């Protein structure tokens, strides 16, 4: 839109502005001319003089003129430029115009911010004759510097990110991590909530799903961010996952030379050879146990595997689901880890999993008495049935470790199965499917909620016995203490 307004004659009338060109010092009028036009004429100064003059006069009509200029161009490249003296009456006489044809006079004037005027006309200078010329000025009024606007407000409540979790938070390279986000939008518009996941490294399986998985592809710390939006505004949150380099044999495979083809030790022999269930590092599975070593389903040195442990209890090689005494409420963290494999405790200790100064910890270091959830759990049992007497948080921690190790729910180096079991993992983690994992009842009792999303938010809270146990298990898995998980 052109905000300037063009006014021709009408503005000239309003300003009372008249230009006159003539041979006298008084204003001249042109019969039939328009008010506001600039009128000029040439005159004959006398015999033998082959030049003429142009007289210009501007009547301001009370309007304050800031400046006024003229430009005369003519044949042979002639040009003459001048300015008017500014005052109540503005006039000037231009002398010395050579006789000729094809002259043009251009006049410009300004009156502050009110208007800018300009116009031009052609004329001839004839020796011994007088010629009149009218300059038609067009004036443009400056646009107004103020205006108005009509504003209509539309209220939109932005969605809020309520929960963001990544479990486990430390894994070896090549391992997947479960990602869960949930958001709420009070006005449920203008569009449904959408999710967008990004990561500084690694890959995300479904970047636009509320529940998805992340896979570590390189060692280091990956920052994972989720944005939620209703197409107008939104919220965001970030978390980190530590991806640890994998050294030696691939995590999750059987020891080299075991001949077990990555399967769990069942206590059965392979190809008629005595099965030890545990091979020495880099050595074939010979069915020979070291003298004095904890019973692993291996016979004493040189003897066939009888299936009898040193304690005299039959070694069936079958998981009964009953926590070993070392991992029960009356056991200890070190005894529980040692019971899993000879080097499980050493690996966890070396990597700081038991050191509070390195964000580790032990069950014995978890203070306080557990405040258990009241009422029935989803499967109908109660916390008082699981814990007949009020336990300490340390006892809950040892009970949780026993459940995790005996059920082998973390054998994939992830604890999602410990919470969800065989239930749909995505629905379980999103809170739409009831968990049925072996650790779910213990988690519910200690964390004080049956909600899977609430449990995830405090899953590794080391002030809680179950949280301390989870933190220790995730640390051992992250640092490749695979023998702790029967791998």
Topology:
Elements: E1 5-7, H1 9-15, E2 18-19, E3 38-41, E4 51-59, E5 67-74, E6 78-83, E7 89-98, E8 100-111, E9 115-125, E10 132-135, E11 138-141, E12 160-167, E13 170-172, E14 176-184, E15 194-199, E16 203-204, E17 211-215, E18 220-229, E19 234-244, H2 333-340, H3 344-350, H4 383-386, H5 393-407, H6 416-420, H7 425-430, H8 440-447, H9 452-457, H10 465-478
Parallel strand pairs: 13-19
Antiparallel strand pairs: 1-11, 2-4, 3-10, 4-7, 5-6, 5-8, 8-9, 9-11, 12-14, 14-17, 15-18, 16-17, 18-19
Helix pairs in contact: 2-3, 5-10
Write structural notes for this entry.
The chain contains ten helices and 19 strands. It is an alpha+beta fold and 487 residues long. It has a six-stranded antiparallel sheet. A hairpin with a 6-residue loop joins strand 16 (203-204) and strand 17. The longest helix has 15 residues, at 393-407. Mean pLDDT is 75; it is low at 1-36, 41-47 and 248-321.
Number of helices: 10
Tell me the series of helices and strands, N- to C-terminal.
EHEEEEEEEEEEEEEEEEEEHHHHHHHHH
Number of strands: 19
Shape label: rod-shaped
State the secondary-structure class. alpha+beta
Major β-sheet profile? 6 strands, antiparallel
**Can you give the mean pLDDT?**
75
Number of domains: 3
Explain briefly what this protein structure is.
By secondary structure, the chain is an alpha+beta fold. Helix 2 packs across helix 3 (344-350) and helix 5 (393-407) packs across helix 10. It has helices at residues 9-15, 333-340, 344-350, 383-386, 393-407, 416-420, 425-430, 440-447, 452-457, 465-478, and strands spanning 5-7, 18-19, 38-41, 51-59, 67-74, 78-83, 89-98, 100-111, 115-125, 132-135, 138-141, 160-167, 170-172, 176-184, 194-199, 203-204, 211-215, 220-229, 234-244.
């Amino acid at each position: 839109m052109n905000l300037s307004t063009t006014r021709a004659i009408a503005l000239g009338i309003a300003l009372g502005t008249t230009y006159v060109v003539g041979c006298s010092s008084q204003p001249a009028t042109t019969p039939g001319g328009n008010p506001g036009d600039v009128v000029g004429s040439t005159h004959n100064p006398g015999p033998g003089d082959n030049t003429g003059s142009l007289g210009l006069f501007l009547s301001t009509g009370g309007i304050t003129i800031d400046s006024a200029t003229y430009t005369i161009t003519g044949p042979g490249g002639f040009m003459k430029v001048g300015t008017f003296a500014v005052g109540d009456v503005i006039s000037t006489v231009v002398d010395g115009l050579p006789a000729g044809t094809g002259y043009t006079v251009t006049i410009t004037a300004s009156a502050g911010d009110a208007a800018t005027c300009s116009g031009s006309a052609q004329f001839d200078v004839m020796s011994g004759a007088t010629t009149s010329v009218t300059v038609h000025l067009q004036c443009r009024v400056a646009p107004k510097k103020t205006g108005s606007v009509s504003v209509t407000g539309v209220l939109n409540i932005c969605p809020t990110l309520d929960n963001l979790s990544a479990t486990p938070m430390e894994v070896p390279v090549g391992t997947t991590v479960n990602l869960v986000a949930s958001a709420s939008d009070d006005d449920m518009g203008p569009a449904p909530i959408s999710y967008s996941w990004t990561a500084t490294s690694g890959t995300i399986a479904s970047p636009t799903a509320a529940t998805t998985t992340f896979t570590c592809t390189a060692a280091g710390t990956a920052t994972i961010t989720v944005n939620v939006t209703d197409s107008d505004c939104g919220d965001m949150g970030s978390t980190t996952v530590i991806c640890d380099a994998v050294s030696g044999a691939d995590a999750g495979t059987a020891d080299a030379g075991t001949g077990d083809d990555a399967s769990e030790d069942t206590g059965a022999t392979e190809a008629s050879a005595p099965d030890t269930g545990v091979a020495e590092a880099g050595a074939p599975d010979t069915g020979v146990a070291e003298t004095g070593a904890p019973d692993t389903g291996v016979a004493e040195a040189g003897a066939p595997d009888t299936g009898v442990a040193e304690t005299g209890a039959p070694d069936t090689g079958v998981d009964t689901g009953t926590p070993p005494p070392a991992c029960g409420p009356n056991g200890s963290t070190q005894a529980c880890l040692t019971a899993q494999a000879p080097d499980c405790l050493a690996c966890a200790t070396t990597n700081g999993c038991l050191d509070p100064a390195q964000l580790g910890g032990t069950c014995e270091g978890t203070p306080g008495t557990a405040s258990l959830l009241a009422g029935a759990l989803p499967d109908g049992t109660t916390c008082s049935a699981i814990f007949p007497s009020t336990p300490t948080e340390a006892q809950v921690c040892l009970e949780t470790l026993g459940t995790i190790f005996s059920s082998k729910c973390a054998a994939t180096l992830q604890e999602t199965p410990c919470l969800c079991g065989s239930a749909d993992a995505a629905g379980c983690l999103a809170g739409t499917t009831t968990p049925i994992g072996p650790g779910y009842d213990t988690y519910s009792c200690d964390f004080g909620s049956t909600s899977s999303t609430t449990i995830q938010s405090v899953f590794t809270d080391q002030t809680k016995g179950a949280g301390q146990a989870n933190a220790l298990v995730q640390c051992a898995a992250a640092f490749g203490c695979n023998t702790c998980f029967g791998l």
